[in-house]
Design brief:
Structural class: alpha+beta
Shape: globular
Helix content: 40-55%
Number of strands: 10
Order of helices and strands: HHHHHEEEEHEEEEHEEHHHHH
Number of domains: 3
CATH architecture of the largest domain: Up-down Bundle
Number of helices: 12
Radius of gyration: 21 Å
Strand content: 15-25%
């Protein structure tokens, strides 16, 4: 099974991969220095209109770019942090920003000088976005007052801005009653950051909005438009995050093959044992099927088709595939995989988060079944 890219996509993939590898070979960067350096590859603005400083490409190209990032960088936490900033913040902001927001705030997101966090999840509602407790009240026609808290926010403590979703009109529900605000970090507080079992280099925090005064110019699109903005951003995130996982599987597959060929048992390379070669073959099937599903959904997204079911299918399948793949890699490496030197145990811990973020896999099953009329 082959997944052919056109010449421009191949060049973009290889260019990003090579640039990221070179950045990682340089003297140790701080998180922010690395962020700015990788932003210079253009990866954040792949799908942003050229009039706003982007490349004007689409979801498929963004997917391919993240595949290159996942292939080149083993820092899955950093990769996820950059993808969350891009897919859940930059993409929706680029589509709905005012000209002033685009020329100032969006530009700073593209060049890496500022970081944005997506703030939807709340402790009481979890992955369900229909029970928001964060409220925004319009005051004097030129300010909103925000009250509430957001939890498990990727990049929360390090973000310069938050894309915050809050209820503005209770009786209109999610579509019509929720608004999106681009809020600077001086309007809220980070009250805790969480220690995690994996993805250690991406911050995960709880944010508090306590009588936060937000100018009406911070409203993204129009009042009541937040539900539509969020749903669209999640279709992009659930589709294009698959690129990171595919890239990671391809990177680890190379390690697995090299290890299986070099590791000997009874004087024979373990790759010659069917128990090992068949396991590796099944791992390649996970990569190929993940590509088939994700590439198809990204192409549909670029055609502006309804991808509610397909994006959830992509997220569900690929997140489970990457976890299974990394566990299989651990089995092949055996005791060597369990120690930290080879990095396989880290890959396993990082992969387990994929079924939780961007809406848990149970939520994806709800979306899929709903699309089937159940």
């Amino acid at each position: 099974m082959r997944h052919e890219l056109n010449q421009e996509q191949l060049l973009m993939h290889d260019s990003i991969k090579q640039q990221v590898m070179m950045i990682q070979q340089e003297p140790a960067h701080s998180f922010k220095e690395k962020w700015k350096a990788i932003a210079q590859t253009g990866i954040i603005g792949i799908a942003v209109d050229p009039s706003q400083g982007g490349l004007g490409l689409g979801a498929f190209d963004q997917l391919v770019a993240f595949e290159a990032l996942g292939r080149a960088s083993s820092d899955n936490g950093f990769n996820f942090a950059l993808a969350a900033h891009t897919l859940a913040c930059v993409i929706p902001i680029s589509k709905y920003a005012s000209s002033e927001q685009a020329s100032t705030i969006l530009a700073s997101f593209l060049n890496g000088s500022n970081i944005c966090a997506n703030a939807m999840t709340e402790s009481e509602s979890g992955s369900s976005v229909y029970q928001l407790q964060t409220k925004a009240h319009l005051q004097n026609d030129n300010q909103y007052i925000l009250n509430g808290s957001k939890t498990f926010i990727s990049n929360g403590a390090i973000a310069d801005y938050c894309l915050v979703y809050a209820e503005t009109t209770a009786n209109k529900g999610f579509f019509g009653g929720i608004s999106a605000f681009l809020v600077p970090n001086n309007a809220y507080r980070c009250i805790q950051s969480y220690a995690k079992m994996g993805l250690e280099s991406v911050d995960l925090s709880e944010l508090l909005f306590e009588q936060s005064v937000v100018d009406v110019s911070c409203l993204l699109s129009k009042a009541g438009g937040g539900g539509f903005i969020f749903n669209e951003s999640m279709e992009w995130e659930r589709t294009c995050l698959a690129g990171l996982h595919i890239g990671a599987m391809e990177r680890v597959m190379q390690q697995v093959i090299e290890f299986a060929k070099s590791r000997k048992s009874n004087g024979i390379s373990i790759s010659k044992y069917q128990a090992i070669s068949h396991r590796i073959a099944e791992m390649q099937v996970l990569i190929d099927t993940s590509k088939t599903i994700a590439y198809s959904t990204a192409r549909m997204l670029d055609k502006k088709l309804n991808v509610s079911r397909e994006s959830s299918t992509t997220k569900l399948y690929v997140s489970e595939a990457v976890a299974k793949f990394m566990l299989e890699a651990l089995h092949i490496f055996g005791a060597s995989g369990y120690i930290k030197d080879y990095g396989i145990e880290q890959e396993v811990r990082d992969a387990l988060a994929a079924s939780i973020y961007s809406g848990t896999n149970d939520i994806q099953k709800n979306i899929i079944s709903s699309n089937l009329g159940l």
